[in-house]
Amino acid sequence: MPEPLSPADLRALDRAHVWHPYGPMPGRQEPLVVESASGVRLRLAEPAHGQNELVDGMSSWWSAVHGYNHPVLNEAARGQLDRMSHVMFGGLTHEPAVRLAARLVEITPEPLQHVFLADSGSVSVEVAVKMCLQYWRSAGRPAKQRLLTWRGGYHGDTWQPMSVCDPEGGMHELWSGALPQQVFADEPPAGFGMEPDAAYAGHLRELIAHHADELAAVIVEPVVQGAGGMRFHSPGYLRVLREACDAHGVLLVFDEIATGFGRTGKLFAAEHAGVSPDVMCVGKALTGGYLTMAATLCTTAVAEGISRGEVPVLAHGPTFMGNPLASAVACASVDLLLGQDWEQEIKRIEAGLRDGLAAASGLPGVRDVRVLGAIGVVQLDHEVDMAAATRAAVREGVWLRPFRDLVYTMPPYVTGDDDVARICRAVCAAAREG
Ligand SMILES: Cc1ncc(COP(=O)(O)O)c(C=O)c1O
């Protein structure tokens, strides 16, 4: 084992050489150095604002739903490591990937029968788009190669996903002129519990009908738009999309990368609407936050359509496709989730977030407070001062990562009531000081 780096050396090397998400080079913010993590706590290599460890309010960006260093997931990883950590997926197969695919087919909406294992959420969206375009190409309709989505969305950082992120004010606005030109509907009206707005439903139907000849698919995040603004909408709009897509011969893709595996209170957010898509992406919590893996599922009609084409194969095959380690941990993570009363746990966290975040409504500068499942959001009426807000949360012993006008949390499902309350105090402090 190499000599451990001191936190100061580590930070200096980090600053000189390491690019962080959405960051400049060299970095302008001092990242906290995490030494280890277990349960819901991140242990710091040196104290920050008087804290040696922080309760994780972010689940490492929606992924670590069981918390860190979980004995069951550790065991799954170790067991698989002793057999093989990786083997190519072309011409070979193995039990972890096959088990995982079968499990995903079992737990996702019934028409989804086929699974493409990808190495990140963004890649799974690329694959979903490729599936849809190729489906229509194979059907002799090559002009159907655009996508429709609603504004306010986020689908990842590679090229096709970027083209369906919100083109204005979103993270990828810089690339508007260079990206494929997609069709954008207005943002869905806010409010999970709201009745669908007839005028907005009409707007969706009209746009889909108008562009049907050039549309391969509609792609949306169902019920919760995550990194595009942490907005919730009525599940009713998903039914509108399903009906309009069926009526006009357009495929429907649900990106459940953030919402999947219980986060919104249903195992998959599509269940709130009782509709199933033609193609669906899952990722993030798939491996319980242990390893990078995502999956694109599709119906038999989509798979057979592609296979009937002039090029009857889906030409995509990442080197680490179906990685056995990630697959084994994903199987263990899904079993761990489904082997407990996860719905009750999400309801418990939801109640804790509602209680604890109620105090935020009265704070100056707070525009909206909303909670759905294990997601709590405080929206400000101004751009958050990320450094000040983060500092305020750390002082409360909590890790948060605010962005734009949002201070938000999606804690691990194993977060106890006291820690949920602590996270809420930190969100309020961040909203006050940010
Ligand atoms: C809805 C949604 N789609 C896609 C992605 C991209 O996933 P990844 O970061 O694993 O590439 C994200 C990530 O935040 C997401 O929230």
TrEMBL record:
> Which gene name does the record give?
bioA
Site features described as Participates in the substrate recognition with KAPA and in a stacking interaction with the adenine ring of SAM, chain residue numbers: 22
**What name has this protein been given in UniProt?**
Adenosylmethionine-8-amino-7-oxononanoate aminotransferase
Quaternary structure and interacting proteins, as annotated: Homodimer.
Q: Where does pyridoxal 5'-phosphate bind?
A: 121-122, 255, 318-319
Q: Which cofactor does it need?
A: pyridoxal 5'-phosphate
GO molecular function (one): adenosylmethionine-8-amino-7-oxononanoate transaminase activity
Q: Which family does it belong to?
A: Belongs to the class-III pyridoxal-phosphate-dependent aminotransferase family. BioA subfamily.
**Could you tell me the superkingdom of the organism this chain comes from?**
Bacteria
Upper lineage = Bacteria, Bacillati, Actinomycetota, Actinomycetes, Kitasatosporales
Its top-level enzyme class, in one word, is transferase
CDD domains, sorted: OAT_like
> Which species is this UniProt entry from?
Streptomyces brevispora
